[in-house]
Amino acid sequence: MKPRHLALALVVLATLLPFVPAQAQWVFVARKALGRIEHMREGQQGGGQPAYDFATVLLDAPADRVFTVALDMARKNRSVHVVMQDPAQRRFQVAQGDRTATFNVVPFGDDVSQLLIAGHAGPGEDATTPRVVEAVLRVCREMGKHCQVGG
């Protein structure tokens, strides 16, 4: 190799080296987030205020597949009924009495997507937090993905 080509190769390599650790860190963070279920509650149940419970997880699966699996599971579940579905937006809603849950699937790439479930309980009903977290876990199990509730 000519010294000029060798020098050019070294310059190119030297400029790319800072990006390799940054990309490796991003991949490490993304892998740690996959399958980790996060949940939160917004609002108060008492005093007539509506409360919303949210659970979300990143899955290493295409968004269309996650949406299809979740919707099929909801259709087969005799304790709830599907009250709205929008396949183009990968969103559907189920109801059980005064409780509702809205499922959204967001693509983050070809093979990574986020499942978000927002639950709402009617006046005088128990919080939906356990139900939305369990719904995420059921979708994970159905898809053969290992998911766990974050700490």
Q: How large, in whole angstroms, is the Cα Rg?
A: 21 Å
- Main β-sheet, in a few words? 7 strands, mixed
Query: Which percent band covers the strand fraction?
Result: 25-35%
Helix vs. strand class: alpha+beta
Under the CATH scheme, which class of the largest domain?
Answer: Alpha Beta
Helix content range: 25-40%
Q: What are the secondary-structure elements, in order, as H or E?
A: HHEEHEEEEHE
Question: Distance between the terminal alpha carbons, to the nearest Å?
Answer: 55 Å
Helix count equals 4
The low-confidence parts are: 10-14
CATH architecture of the largest domain: 2-Layer Sandwich
* Strand order across the largest sheet: 3-4-5-6-2-1-7
CATH fold type of the largest domain: Alpha-D-Glucose-1,6-Bisphosphate, Chain A, domain 4
Mean pLDDT over all positions? 79
Strand element count = 7
Bulk shape: globular
Number of domains: 2
The CATH fourth-level homologous superfamily of the largest domain: START domain
